[in-house]
Amino acid sequence: MPAPVRPHRYDIGIAVAGLLGGLTGVGYDVFSVITVGPYSPLALAGLLVMCGAELLRRSAPGWCLAIGTVAVIWDGLFSGLLAVLLMYSDAVYAAVLYGGARLSRLVLRASVAFTVAVTVGSLVWLRDPQALILGVLAAAVTATPAWTAAIVRGHRESAAHARLRAEQTALLAEMDRVQAVTEERARMARELHDVVANHLSAIAIHSTAALTLDEPGASRDALTVIRENSTQGLAEMRRLIGILRADVPDAVPEALPGLDSLDALIARAERSAAGRLRITAEDRRADRPRPPAPVDLAAYRIVQESLTNALKHATPGEVRVRLDQDDAQSLTVCVTSPNAAAGHDTSHPRAPGSGAGLTGMRERVALLGGTFSAGPYGEGDRWQVLARLPLTEGTTTT
Fold first, then answer.
1. What's the predicted TM-score (pTM) here?
2. Which of the residue ranges 42-51, 138-147, 284-293, 357-366 has the most confident prediction, judged by mean pLDDT?
3. Do 138 and 270 share a domain, yes or no?
4. Is the domain of 137 the same as that of 271?
5. Which letter does DSSP use for residue 370 in this model?
6. Highest mean pLDDT (candidates 22-31, 131-140, 245-254)
7. Domain span including residue 153
8. Cβ atoms of 275 and 315 closer than 8 Å
9. pLDDT by residue (tens digit) across 233-284?
10. Do 269 and 379 belong to one domain?
11. Which of 142, 169, 196 is at the close of a domain?
12. Quick check: helix, strand or coil at residue 129?
């Protein structure tokens, strides 16, 4: 069984004040609003019951009003006390303010109907304009506190709705902030991976060659490639740091790489391959205009990561890079390389990999609304990376 709800301290105070006011009225013969006869000690029962009902004004406002109605009727039969009427008006107020929506509407309508009935009935019965005093009294005890409570309740509900909207707005703002931070972290992770992985893979491959081969000429070539990649990697890292540093006033970041730098990228990859891979590029875009900057950067990074994966995992052979733009809607990037899994040992790749490159390429394409695939191609002897990037803003490809 649930524990009974303790009365609020304010309700206890109202009940005690009503009891003392009623007893004071009895002691000084100020006990009747309208004198209908001598005071009877039986009216004290109505006072006590009304004070007990006041203890329920918050926890059970319906019961408070019902018990109070019985008490005020009982008290009225024995030259009722003013304190009982005042406490009953508070019970009406509490029923509208703290009760449920249905109870609140019912008490409002009943109070208006009771006031009208008392006013009309008094005029018909007494046939005297002074009978309006009874209507004013009925309004003061029932309708006035009921409508006052309705106004207070409306303001409280409006304030509660405003607080709820503010909390929801703050929650949505926090969700947007977390999503923006997450997306920015993912974008930075992709960019850092694409910048660093290409150069560090070449450094790892050629440092292994320099340590393995006992040929001064080959070691010198390997060290040359290592120095070139480390210098270029450092320059790109500085470029990214310059973009990320917000405390540098009027900082102008270097331009992001794009397909215009594709020849330099392929030349750098061929030097890193040291004759093991032959890279060919075919640009079928003819005189098409340069794609939008996000598409241009994504296409460049896809080719860059594909060449990096070929340097790390592909067997000797030809790597083909193809760009195609058959219409004004999409750009196709296709990179094929010898598949190391086709009859060759892949347990010891030339440079370690974590699979983050494929994830990054797939995320780049998804952000632009394109399609991406990577896997064995043809008879399984080649590996193909294929991406279709929409060129028009808001276009998605499924």
1. 0.52
2. 138-147
3. no
4. no
5. -
6. 131-140
7. 9-169
8. no
9. 777 777 667 666 655 544 444 556 788 888 888 888 887 777 788 888 888 8
10. yes
11. 169
12. helix
Residue the block writes with tokens 């391959």: 273
> Of 169, 199, 233, which residue sits at a domain end?
169
Per-residue b or e along 379-394, where b marks 16 or more CB atoms closer than 10 Å to that residue's CB? eeebbbbbbbbbbeee
| HEC sequence for 183-251 | HHHHHHHHHHHHHHHHHHHHHHHHHHHHHHCCCHHHHHHHHHHHHHHHHHHHHHHHHHHHHHCCCCCCC
For the segment 292-320, the average pLDDT, to the nearest whole number, is 86
Average pLDDT score, the chain: 80
Would you say residue 312 lies in a domain? yes
Same domain, 157 and 270: no
Total domains in the fold of the chain: 2
Segment 199-247, tens digit of pLDDT: 676 777 667 666 666 667 666 777 777 777 777 777 777 766 766 665 5
Cα 388 to Cα 374: distance, rounded to the nearest angstrom: 12
Neighbours of 179 (CB within 10 A): 10
The reply to whether 128 and 22 lie within a common domain is yes
CA 389 to chain centre: 30
